[in-house]
Design brief:
The structure is a single chain. This protein has a domain of about 40 residues. The chain is about 45% helix and about 0% strand. The longest helix has 23 residues.
């Protein structure tokens, strides 16, 4: 009295392809945004400052220390 146990057939997985033309504009935008944010956090202070005053410096001050950039 042996019963054969049949396993279900494996379901074929299909990986969707994403065209590079759809990703490229968003990747460029994200890269430029990252570079802009890193400029303000890392460089915008003192002699290299593009903006007068200390408002921008104080705005990114904690982020600067969090990322390990020297500040004072």
């Amino acid at each position: 009295m042996s019963q054969a146990v049949s396993s279900p057939a494996p379901i074929p997985l299909s990986i969707p392809s994403i065209p590079v033309r759809q990703i490229l504009p968003w990747a460029v935008f994200a890269g430029l945004l990252f570079v802009l944010v890193m400029y303000f956090v890392s460089t915008e202070q003192g002699a290299l400052s593009l903006f007068d005053g200390t408002y921008l410096h104080e705005l990114v001050h904690d982020g600067r220390h969090l990322l390990g950039f020297p500040c004072h």
